[in-house]
Structure formats: C-alpha cells, structure tokens
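New to this. Please check this fold:
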Amino acid sequence: MSVLVKEVKFNEEAKEPLINGVNTICDAVASTMGYRGRTVLIESPGGLPLVTKDGVSVADSIFLEGAVESLGCEFVKQGCRKTVSEAGDGPQPLYSKILTPNGWIKMGDVSAGDIICGSNNTIQNVLDVFPKGEKEVLNVIFSDGRVVECCEDHLWTVTTRDGIRKTITAKEMIENEVYSFKKNGKKSFRYFVETTASEFNKNETTIDPYLLGLLLGDGSLGVGGSVELSIGYKKKHVLDKIKLPEGMSFEVRDVESKNYLRVKFFGNNSDGLTLKDLLNELGLLGSNSHTKFIPKNYLYSSIEDRKKLLQGLIDTDGYMNKRGKFEYSTVSESLYNDFLELNRGLGNRTSQRKLIRKANSSYSDNPIYRVSEIDGYKNGIKISSIEKTGNYTEMKCIMVSNSDNLYITDDYVITHNTTGTAVLIKELVRLSQEQLKKGVSAIDLKIGIESAVKDIVQYIKESSIKVEDHFLYDIARISANNDEELGKIISEAFLMAGDNGVVSYEQSDNGKTYIDFVGGMPISRGWEFEGFVNKPENRSIEFSNSVMILLSNRKFQNIREVLPVVEYCHKNNHELLIISEMEYEVTKVLYANKKNGLKVAVIAPPSIGEKRRDYFTDISLATGGLIVDLDTSTLLEGYDMEVLLGKCDKVVVTKEDTVLFFNERPNTEAIDSKIEELNSVIKNSHNKLEIEYMQDRVSKLACGVSVIKVGWSTEVELKEKLDRVDDAIHAVKAAKSEGVVYGGGIALLNASYDVDSKKGKVNNGYNIVREAIKKPFKTILDNAGVNPSDIENQLLNYTKVMGYDVKEYEIVDMLKSGILDPAKVIRLELENAASVATTILTTNVTITHKRDESNK
C-alpha cells in the first residue's frame, strides 16, 4: 500500500533544484528564438514526433522528474501561457466542485495551502487563488454526459483527434468548433480530455468494502429486523470472498424453491457491535432497493478499497459481458449516481441510460438505471459541445503544485488552472541570485524589479506604433517563423475580415492553404427543435431563397399571434427564420405545417434582459427588420410585412449557432454608425466586462469571418504548421490591440538605455531588470552565430529605429524591413516574467509530496 508523505526543503536545498527546473525549460525554449533559432523534436502520444520552433509547445512538453524541479518548470510554463493568452488561467464559478482527498468542496471555499486531487493519482497543494470577477458561464459537455461549467478564458489540456496534446482556452475551442463533418455526414470530434483515477485519504471502513458492495446489491438491510444476503446459485463464489470482523460469522441456507442461497449474519465485533449496528452507523439500516446509497467514507476511500466495493456491486447487481466489461443495473437513483461517481473516481469510462418499464409489465413500474463499462476513445473523453448560457456569475481560478497544472473538477473531469517570457525569466532569476549572494535583501530586489517593470511597460506603450494594414504581413510572417506564404495568407485573412471581423483556422480538406471568407452575422443560438432540420447529413437548417426574419422580444404563446407572418411567407414562397421565445405547442404547429411545405426555422433570442434588446437592435440593423417588443400587445396582422420582416440572402442554423449571410448589407451607413458608437464606448470604458460585451457586438455587426484552411502533406507537417498559424493569429490580434514596436529584441534593448535608474535600496532590483531585458536581443543573435556585444556596440551609433536582421546578417531600419513585434506581447512577456522571477526570488521553503512504498 502506498502512503503519501511530504518532503520539506529549506534555503539552498530548496532554491537550487527550483532554479535548475527554471533553467532547464528556459534553455530549451530559448534555443527556438529568432529567424535562425533551432527546431525541437518532441515525442508525441500519437506516435509521430512533433518538429517545432514554437516556444510554448516546447515549454508545455517538458516534465521533470524531481518534485522541486517540476515546480520551477511549472512557474515558467505559467508565465509563457499567460503571455499567449492574457486571461487564460482557468476561471470557474464559485459553486463549481473541486475534488479533495476527503471529497468535494466548492471553488469559492478553496484557499491557498489547501490539499486537492491532481491527475495521475496525485495529491496537490493549492499555491494561490485568483478572483476573476463576473464572467459568462459556458457549459462544456462531454460525450458520456459529464458537464463542466467555466468561462471562455478557461484553459483545457486536450488531445486533438490527430494525437496532439495542447493547452487551449474554451473560447478557442468554440472558435475552431468542437467537431467537423465527414463526407458521410457523421461528426468528427476535435478535442479529448484524458481521464484519471483519483487518490483519496485512507478512511476507516468498519465493514469490508467488498461485503458492503454485496449488501448494497442483494442485501436485506434490516427492513424485516435482520441483515441478510440473497445469492443466486451462479454467484455462490462470492461466499468465499466475504470477510467479517473478528467475533462475527454467517450461516448459509439453501432455498431450493427459489434457486438462491440465504446468508444470515451473527455475532459482535470487538466493540460489541453487530453488523446491524454497523449499518446503522452508516445510515443504511432500513434502506431498501430504491433508497440504497454508498456512504461517503467508502466513496472517498483508498483506490484499493473502492475497487473492492465496485467488485462487490458487480458480483451482485452486475455481470461481465463477452468483451470483459461490466454491466450494472439498479433501481435506486441514489445508488446509480454514487456508482457513476465511484467509477469516475477510479478512471473507468462508462455509458449510462435510464430504462422506463412499460406499465404493469413486471412486478414494478420503477425505472431501471443501467451503467455499462466501455473502452472509450484512446485520447480520453470527447468534448461533444460547448454552450454559452447567457448567465453571468462570480468566478475564480487556482494555481496547483503538480507539474502538469491539472486538477479535478465537476464530474471527475481533469482541467487547468511565449518564448520571450522564458528567456527573461531565466535572466531575471540569474541576476537576482547574484545580488542575493552579495547580501542584498530579497524584498528590496522585488520592489526594485516591480518598479522597473512599471516604468518599462510605460515606455513600451509610449513607443508603440499604431498598426497599419501593411504591417500585418510582417507581423504574421515573423510569428509564423518567417514563413512568407503563411504571413501573406494570414494578413490577407485579417484584411478581408475587416477591423472588427473574426479570423480562425482549421485543417484544409484538399491539402492546400487558402482563405474561406464568409460575409455573415453570427448569432450565438442554434436550433432547439431538430424537426426543422432540412440538411440531415450535417443536422443543419439552410435557407437561401428569399429568406425573411421575424424578430420578437416577446414570447409567442399562441399560433394565432404569429400566423399572419407564417401565412404571408408561405403564400409568397419565402423561407422564414423566427428569432423568439415560443411555447412548445406553437413550435409543434409550425412543425406540422413544415410537412405541408412551410419553410420555417425557430431559434431562441441571444442573451437575456437589456443585452437581449441590444443584440436585437444589432440584428435589426443588419437585416432591416423591426422588433416585436415586450410591450407589443396586438397581433401581427396589422403590420406591413415588407416593413416588419428582416431579410438576408442565406441562413445556416446548426445545433450550436446561426449565421446570417448577406451579399450586400441593407443598412450600411446605420451599421457603420453603430460600430463607431460602440467603439467609442470601448475606448472610454474601464469596465472589462463592458468592453468584452461591446467588442462582441462590434464583431457581429462587422459581418466579416475569415477561416484559414491550413494545407499539409504529412501529419508531422500539419501539427507544426497549425501551431505556427495559431501563434501568428494571436500575434496579429495583439498587434491590432496595442500597436507594434521594433522587433528582434530592439524595443527592450532601447528601453534598457532610456529608462532611468532609481536610487536607494531598490536600485539593485531596478538595474537587474534593465540588464535582463537585453537578453532576448542577445539570444536571437547567439542563435544566429553572431556576437551580441559587437552588434550592440555598433547600434549605439545609430538611431533607435535601427536593429539587426539575422536573416540577412546586417543592420537595417526595423520599421522599413518589417521586423516588428506586437507591443502587447512584449509587455506581457515582461510582466509575466517578473511575476515568476520574484516568486522564485522570495521562495525559501518548498513542500512537495513523495511516494513512500513502505507500509508505515
């Protein structure tokens, strides 16, 4: 039996392996920097190696053996991930569940220092908690019925259907879509999350877990005054496995008339308690087949005990099928739910269903709950959909101590909490350690570092250049590892989508890389009634013949209320999309008329309350239709239908969302005016939620969607190419957000000269940062085989716009040469690197878990 113990290290014994972990990952990542950076070969779970120069992919692939080294490694990963996705740190609702060795607690109750369950049977520390404010709730739905609530920024470690393991936000999965359609019309799912067994504390179990499983299956638990067990002849073998406390025994009676064995229990344990007394302590005494459940101290016990309990349940109310997998049935809903949790805690994959029995068809009309063990998918459980709920709630995220940064949340789902960042982290840590050895205070160094970062960030902001269209190619090219073809395609995709449009990417279906531009307005609502589907091959609704749109912010209670619109569209051969809440009876009548030739679809309105009114206003502008509002009390027969109804050239409705397509927008001037108004609100707002909401409205009104179809010739090429496209899209978005600065490390090199030193105790920490920010420039030149000191001295004779082009090996005008970096990326690299470095700087004790295989 394994026992988890803690290992505590102090001073240099703690700090040395921590810094070794930092240096290992930073050296690997630094080798990829710049045009002449080296490629890294990474073993892949899918069998094919990943060849990449992507720093984040390199960082994410590194896991170190030592516990303290792993902590240092994980600090760097955290910094790199946050640079790529500023908000991507895994916020979840405060009511979400987090698994601990003693069972579940709420996210809102988790504090730094708490012990929780991690992946791979590990127990982990919560290093820190981060309140994230109010965010919209997303439902991440898995193929086996599990559901996790989170927000768009939540990070997930997934394996793609191509066998690539990556960390990605829920928002990115939505943008990429969680599935595509094969040629035969079947869905092909993109993302899988691994399953794991969970280790809990060893709880005292007064009744042997296997025996308890038997009693929960075929036991009579004191209902008639005694505790008995009924065993069929075919399951006689279970009698040999029964273990009782010393002082207790059982006798077996053969009931031939009913083909089963009756087992009765006698005696007392060392405390004088009978089996009936023990069941009473567990709250099970008197429960029957409909009310049985698994006591919590058994449900959250050791893996060994839970496996015994499971076997006892299967040996009574279950069996092993021909594939060697169990089939289990019960009529107790509580026991069914506990049985599911028992299996998920053991990492078993199951399918489940509720069987409704026909009335008077057997001795009972109660439903049967059936659970079947399945092989599942090789990469884990698939994410079948992600749904926006329109509901907002307070959220927070946690940082945990295990090397893969994973913890276990609702329904036993494993979840989470750039290159320059790693380089800066290593240099800041190295210079800080030199100062500590000279006797400088760690706290003074920390204050000096933070002061310098604040000043340099301000310098970067003041130095940034607004992004012009002709910059986009160079930003995309550099971020795609100087791939000119990808740079051209990605920049064109952004230009086609417009300032507020959407750019995404996916695997090409013909081996070529190209842009698929969609002029359309997305609506975050899909069909709710599948009967309206007219494209069964992909379960969608498609209209493209004089499509009319009815917008209603009031719920249709009766078919008479909507009948004038329906009759008008049917008579004039229009296809009709209704965006409104609707009683099911009205939906059924519309569906019945669909069989008679009516072409109609219904989707729910986006969002709720005032936000719904805003989105309706935007849709009204885009389609030219009026809004039937909440205070409209009359029927629709008095309206001029040409005025009331909006129009679009094509509409596609899937289960997840709807897109309205336009060859020409009907109200171009009004839409442009509204976009300008919303952008003004964004510019002057300091409320992050308001800004995100307004940006979403602008994006939908802009009607620009560019999808980059990434071509490939081999699996290895595809994996590496998708990573580069992803990086480049992020870089261009960042550049459009905060502008650009001179690339190749020049922006930070210039800052190191131009930011004034501070006096006093904080001077050492301040100057550490001024020196450290030269390191990205030096690393890029080192990778190109060029002496950084020689080039740095030469650049002192030029203006600030000049830098070194490692591709051409010459000093050039960085702006004219298009060697530019997004200012936002540089800012985040510095801020995140300083955060990691100061944490390590002020760490003097590490507490980690190690596994002791002895029975202590």
